[in-house]
Amino acid sequence: MSKVITMKTVTLSETLAYVRGGELTARQAEILDKMRERARAEQHQLDRYHLDWGLTVPEALEHLITGRADADGDRAGNAYYAALLAIVECTGSDPIDVAVYSKPSTLFSLMDKELRALGVPTDLLPYDFLFLDFADRLPFHIPSPEGGYPAIGCLPLSKAKPVADAYTAVLDRMDDDLTRHAKLLIDKLNVEHEEWQTALKYGHTMDALVFWTVG
Question: Which of 9, 21, 49, 187, by CA, is between 20 and 30 Å from 180?
């Protein structure tokens, strides 16, 4: 089954404001209503296919916005990640699809290994920022989804250019099967860096790229 990696830019503190359990501004409350609508729509799709995670996506969203993710059950992580994705999708810029992959986690695990062997620093390797790092930024633990998807990652915009440069420096020594995938990331990250630099001149505060994979 094909999986799509999508990304957008966010102001991380604004996105995380919805999972800190504090008071929201009037504007944030309006956005929260959109998140609730999205969570209900996702649950409707699950109900159509008779998928029961033991926790509904709207319930999971309410847990997150009160600052917790403590429901029991092997599939609770699926509901929490779907709810977290609703939060991400309703904040920041419009989303952009990166690419479609058949086995993205396997592909980028191999790329990690290749780039590490070529001397790219660990904090610039793709697997974590594509699939894992966003959950580490939450103020509480969130259980992982069964099967690993949806997966949500995060890369500070200040690292977009260093990542692109590091991959470019070793591109001619990479395995041919991985080169085109590395080039795609290089191109995407260079564009995001340039747009970020322009946005900063106009007072915009977006500071992170968020990636999510579903399918």
Answer: 9
CB 79 within 8 A of CB 60: yes
**Partners of 151 in the β-ladder:** 213
List the chain pLDDT tens, one digit each, 215 residues.
789 999 999 999 999 999 988 888 999 999 999 999 999 999 999 999 999 999 999 999 999 999 999 999 999 999 999 999 999 999 999 999 999 999 999 999 999 999 999 999 999 999 999 999 999 999 999 999 998 999 999 999 999 999 999 999 999 999 999 999 999 999 999 999 999 999 999 999 999 999 999 97
Compute the distance between CA of residue 10 and CA of residue 58 in angstroms, rounded to an integer. Answer: 23
Q: What is the pTM of this model?
A: 0.95
Report in angstroms the alpha-carbon separations of 77 from 4, 73, 81, 117, 163: 20, 8, 6, 33, 30
Residues forming a β-bridge with 210:
8, 154
CB atoms within 10 A of CB 67: 14
Rg, Å, the chain Cα set: 18
95: left (phi over 0), alpha (psi -120 to 50) or beta: beta
Helices (H), the chain: 12-16, 26-48, 57-65, 76-89, 104-117, 126-131, 160-170, 176-201
